[in-house]
């Protein structure tokens, strides 16, 4: 069974159709890249999968491990293993990263009927993960993303991904605002999480990221549709010729 | 946040119309006849076996009150109060003189148990076990002076306090046992003529706490009073007087809950604090009285006058309040910075939901030289509520070097509520430095969704964001209160989003 299956998805925002019948099948162990120009609907797709309010699904289906994802509350999706690394992670002043992660992890565990993780066990776990991602301890004590640099914010997203161990990770423009060193660190973190059970959907505008996170499948999105799919070489092709050739196809 | 899970569980168990503390204790009570007259005042005074000077003081206040009119400047709106339709005195009938907690009416104890008040909790009575994660304070103790309706029925830790020379007792007792202290200080911070509600309180106050900390003494425990309004239609007129003599320190906690009622209940308390040279009082309040139901019916009218007088040099008064209850809140805990180098603080969290109306803030009156004050106010408005911060910072002509820092932040949840900031500043000398910062923000959908995507429920997400917003103030509370307050904040915002 595929892990994530998007079938003919049609989505409206404020009466305007943004996705016009989009399909995508992601199997366990795969990394899919979704490329496309600004405004093509990449973030919209990621938001609808995660269950952000404000989007009206007018047609199609999303199945996660065969279950109807659109029927689930967004926090239920999270507990079942859907993770979205945001293009623009928000700041939560006054809430330490450490507290936030602990509360979120326990909420997920509880929803799955698992025991809550104690503070010492959590501390140990989060320290290990932070260390593997080169995240200083100090960052965990600060307010969630408050005063973080662009690179730190993205690393914090990956830290959460590593901590929650989701089944499907959607990474929305993980590379935006990162210099090459920060990009490499973040990509290493993502690569470390690749596994035969887990799938990733890497959304990006640029081919550059895909040098570091090498995808199995590349999709080109334009104007709310997938207009072409192929292997990793498709990304390089795009790099040479640009998106213009697909504008008409859309 | 460890409290989140528990909070959410508690939130699930209540709905807006089932105010958690809305139960009533069945005990016989001893009431004054309805209405207000000189006779009512005499009745109350006689019930308390008061000396003649106290009765005179009350009667003078009563006569003054007759000449006054109810203030209308606050941004609150409520039906006219019929002062003749209120009982001004109600006391649980004393069965006998109590010498220990075991002798308290079991009905009353049950009420406290439901409220989760640790009156009988061994851990606290023994003074061990700070909450997990709390600062190490093995000898931390709380003395509870429980005010049930209008009469104090339980006083603990008297002995240990006595050894330290600290007087902590119902004010009705202090009037009889320490008349010289009461006469010296009562009404010197909030005069009987101060304002409509304070004057009313002066005439009919029923009971409250009296604290005197002698020179050089650091009070060996936190002093705590739990207020509770119980009698149907009974006005509640608490009177508290705390004096910290030279070089002394005391921390006082006040917490309140009230049972559910259809009729609105008037509450007009007066709290007076006095610090002499080098003394400090820290006064913390958690107020969660019945706010009214989901249609805006019922709820407490809370018209409180709280004021501290930094009478001595280098003295300090710090107010911290977490206000989540009451239908109407009219409350401005203030500091008169009279002594040179004295300082005042006001830390406030005011939360309004449903149809609640809050008009609260502080006054910092700088009179002495080199006085400083600090105001941190966090207002949170949800539902159809209105939340106003009203503050005055003034520096007298002689108050050279006066400094104030004010930060007023408002958070709106939803779009049917309102937050308002009304700061008044008066500097009568040019050496004063007053800084004022104010922000108003809405709880952002993006922030909520971020939390929910990580697995938190809507309520948990709101609770987390709001607790982050108020963190600076929560940190000012003693640990026992901070944990409770954090839960209370989440509970009071239940149903505010989505
Ligand atoms: N909340 C919204 N309200 C109105 N239009 C929106 C909203 N979100 C996205 N859109 C529109 O939908 C289209 C796709 O946006 P988006 O999914 O963010 O694209 P991408 O991530 O590929 O840049 C754009 O035309 C954008 O303007
Ligand atoms: Mg985007």
TrEMBL record, chain A:
Pfam families: ABC_tran (PF00005). CDD domains: ABC_FeS_Assembly (cd03217). The keyword ATP-binding applies. Gene3D superfamilies: P-loop containing nucleotide triphosphate hydrolases (3.40.50.300). SMART domains: AAA. Keywords: ATP-binding, Nucleotide-binding. Involved in beta-(1-->2)glucan export. Transmembrane domains (TMD) form a pore in the inner membrane and the ATP-binding domain (NBD) is responsible for energy generation. This is Fe-S cluster assembly ATPase SufC. It comes from Bradyrhizobium uaiense. The gene is sufC.
From TrEMBL, chain B:
One of its GO terms (biological process) is iron-sulfur cluster assembly. It comes from Bradyrhizobium uaiense. This is Fe-S cluster assembly protein SufB. Pfam families: SUFBD_core, SufBD_N. It comes from the Bacteria. InterPro entries: Fe-S_cluster_assembly_SufBD (IPR055346), SUF_FeS_clus_asmbl_SufB (IPR010231), SUF_FeS_clus_asmbl_SufBD_core (IPR000825), SUF_FeS_clus_asmbl_SufBD_sf (IPR037284), SufBD_N (IPR045595). Residues 159-218 form the SUF system FeS cluster assembly SufBD N-terminal domain. PANTHER family: FES CLUSTER ASSEMBLY PROTEIN SUF (PTHR30508), UPF0051 PROTEIN ABCI8, CHLOROPLASTIC-RELATED (PTHR30508:SF1). SUPFAM superfamilies: Stabilizer of iron transporter SufD. Residues 227-469 form the SUF system FeS cluster assembly SufBD core domain. Belongs to the iron-sulfur cluster assembly SufBD family.
């Amino acid at each position: 069974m595929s892990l994530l299956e998007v079938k003919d998805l049609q989505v409206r925002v404020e009466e305007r159709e943004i996705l016009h019948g989009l399909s995508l099948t992601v199997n366990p162990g795969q990394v899919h890249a979704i490329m496309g120009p600004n405004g093509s609907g990449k973030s919209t797709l990621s938001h609808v999968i995660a269950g952000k309010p404000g989007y009206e699904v007018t047609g199609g289906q999303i199945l996660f491990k065969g279950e109807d994802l659109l029927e689930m509350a967004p926090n239920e999706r999270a507990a079942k293993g859907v993770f979205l690394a945001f293009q623009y992670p928000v700041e939560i002043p006054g809430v330490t990263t450490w507290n936030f992660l602990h509360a979120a992890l326990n909420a997920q565990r509880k929803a799955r009927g698992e025991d809550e993780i104690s503070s010492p066990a959590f501390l140990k776990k989060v320290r290990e993960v932070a260390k593997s991602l080169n995240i200083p301890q100090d960052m965990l004590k600060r307010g969630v993303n408050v005063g973080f640099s662009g690179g730190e914010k993205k690393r914090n997203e990956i830290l959460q991904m590593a901590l929650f161990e989701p089944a499907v990770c959607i990474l929305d423009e993980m590379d935006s605002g990162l210099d090459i060193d920060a990009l490499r660190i973040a990509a290493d973190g993502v690569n470390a999480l690749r596994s035969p059970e887990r799938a990733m959907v890497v959304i990006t505008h640029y081919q550059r990221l895909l040098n570091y996170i090498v995808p199995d499948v590349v999709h080109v999105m334009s104007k709310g549709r997938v207009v072409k799919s192929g292997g990793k070489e498709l990304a390089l092709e795009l790099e040479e010729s640009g998106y213009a050739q697909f504008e008409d196809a859309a | 946040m460890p409290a989140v899970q528990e909070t959410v569980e508690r939130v699930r168990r209540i709905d807006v119309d089932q105010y958690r503390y809305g139960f009533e204790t069945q005990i016989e009570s001893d009431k004054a006849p309805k209405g207000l007259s000189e006779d009512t005042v005499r009745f109350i005074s006689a019930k308390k076996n008061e000396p003649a000077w106290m009765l005179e003081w009350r009667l003078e206040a009563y006569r003054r009150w007759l000449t006054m009119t109810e203030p209308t400047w606050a941004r609150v709106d409520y039906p006219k109060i019929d002062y003749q339709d209120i009982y001004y005195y109600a006391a649980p009938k004393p069965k006998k003189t109590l010498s220990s907690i075991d002798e308290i009416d079991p009905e009353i104890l049950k009420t406290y148990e439901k409220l989760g008040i640790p009156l009988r909790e061994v851990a606290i009575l023994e003074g061990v076990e700070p909450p997990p994660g709390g600062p190490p304070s093995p000898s931390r103790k709380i003395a509870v002076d429980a005010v049930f309706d209008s009469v104090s029925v339980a006083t603990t830790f008297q002995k240990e306090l006595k050894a330290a020379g600290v007087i902590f007792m119902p004010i009705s007792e202090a009037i009889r046992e320490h008349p010289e202290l009461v006469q010296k200080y009562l009404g010197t911070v909030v005069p009987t003529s101060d304002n409509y509600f304070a004057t009313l309180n002066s005439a009919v106050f029923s009971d409250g706490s009296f604290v005197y900390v002698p020179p050089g003494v650091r009070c060996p425990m936190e002093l705590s009073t739990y207020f509770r309004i119980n009698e149907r239609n009974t006005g509640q007129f608490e009177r508290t007087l705390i004096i910290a003599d030279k070089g002394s320190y005391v921390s006082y906690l006040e917490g309140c809950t009230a049972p559910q009622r259809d009729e609105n209940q008037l509450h007009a308390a007066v709290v007076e604090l006095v610090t002499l040279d080098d003394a400090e009082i820290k006064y913390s309040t958690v107020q969660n009285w019945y706010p009214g139901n989901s249609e805006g019916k019922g709820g407490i009218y809370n018209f409180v006058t709280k004021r501290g007088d930094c009478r001595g040099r280098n003295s300090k008064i710090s107010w911290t309040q977490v206000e989540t209850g009451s239908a109407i809140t009219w409350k401005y805990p203030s500091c008169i910075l009279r002594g040179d180098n004295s300082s005042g603080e006001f830390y406030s969290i005011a939360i309004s939901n449903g149809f609640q109306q809050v008009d609260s803030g502080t006054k910092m009156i700088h009179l002495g030289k080199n006085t400083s004050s600090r105001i941190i106010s966090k207002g949170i408005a949800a539902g159809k509520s209105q939340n106003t911060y009203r503050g005055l910072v003034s520096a007298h002509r002689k108050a050279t070097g006066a400094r104030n820092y004010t930060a007023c932040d408002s958070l709106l949840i939803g779009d049917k509520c309102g937050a308002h900031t009304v700061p008044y500043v008066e500097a009568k000398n040019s050496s004063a430095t007053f800084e004022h910062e104010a922000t108003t923000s809405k709880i952002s959908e993006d922030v909520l969704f971020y939390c929910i995507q990580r697995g938190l429920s809507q309520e948990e997400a709101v609770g987390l964001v709001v607790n982050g917003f108020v963190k600076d103030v929560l940190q000012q509370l003693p640990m026992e209160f901070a944990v409770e307050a954090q839960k209370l904040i989440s509970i009071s915002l239940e149903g505010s989003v989505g």
